[in-house]
What we know:
The chain has six helices and no strands. The chain has 95 residues and is mainly alpha-helical.
Amino acid sequence: MKTLEKLGLIAIGETVRHYRRVVRNISMEKLAEEADISPDHLGRIERAEKSPHYTTMFKICSALELDMNDINKRIHELVHEHKDEIEAEREADNQ
């Protein structure tokens, strides 16, 4: 099952990866350099292994020329797609 938190991390990671690869066509190392973070840290964010701090996300979005609202939109889309799973998980947790 996908928790709400995990869906958020997945949405962030896949949106960053998409903009990096498809829109900007740059390497992870180049984006990390432009955002002033380590490539390792960026990799963990893209793989949804690490929750980025707001300032880190701001630096990544600035480097990608990406509006943070685009990431929020993707989070809402994923939550809607997995609404039934999330509700079932909440019900199971409450029992």
